[in-house]
Amino acid sequence: MQTTMSTQTKPQTGHTPGPWKYGALSESVITERGIEVCSLQDSELDSKRANARLIAAAPELLDALQLMRDRYGKLHDALSDCIESGRLQESDLPDDYRALANYLADAIKADQTAKTALLKAIL
Question: Does residue 5 have a pLDDT over 70?
Answer without folding.
Answer: no
